[in-house]
Write a structure and sequence with these properties.
Length: 216
Amino acid sequence: MKIAPSILSADFAALGEAIARVEAAGADQLHIDVMDGRFVPNITIGPVVVAAIRKRTRLPLDVHLMIVEPERYLADFVKAGADMLTVHAEACPHLQRTLGQIRELGAKAGVALNPGTPPGVLDYVLDDLDLVLVMSVNPGFGGQKFIPSAYAKIRQVRTMAGARPLEISVDGGVKLEHARPLAAHGASILVAGSAIFEAPDAAAMVKRMRNAAAPG
Ligand code: DX5
Ligand code: ZN
């Protein structure tokens, strides 16, 4: 199980130190939430901040684009240092083409599904993607409550993937107690924001989540 701290809940005025702490604790990648005030109500960060983070860490950058018309910004985010770009199925009328563009730019291609979006939208793009991000909250804010229908969706996506080496990531409201059942249902990456950055010791929480997912 990979652990991907979401910096949305970190102290943005001391972001470098927050990242260094989770990197030292063995985080596998860094989850960066990009919001545009249109696809979701909130506005967060853009390519300039991703480029600044790129200079501070060796961790792969997992960039979650909660924006309309993401195809307009793919090249900017890859240039800024994104290793993985995840677009929302709901924001992409030409999903197959958008995924191809991400791979052509040299990044891994991901699709995020809102809680209300059925996994069948992936049926004809399974060979075009590297990652499926199952949202377990409606995107827009950190600190929301985990929606348990994500479990069945993860299992369904894992079955659809068959022998493909697809990463399945779960994002939203993920706390320590969800790690084990999420692993059992087929998730391979846990994204966690408030659980890690609002814990008294963020580094310890990274380790506890990984141990909880794969005990022994
Ligand atoms: C929600 C974001 C998440 C968020 C998770 O819109 O996509 O990545 O940061 O934060 P928590 O873990 O606090 O729900
Ligand atoms: Zn996210």
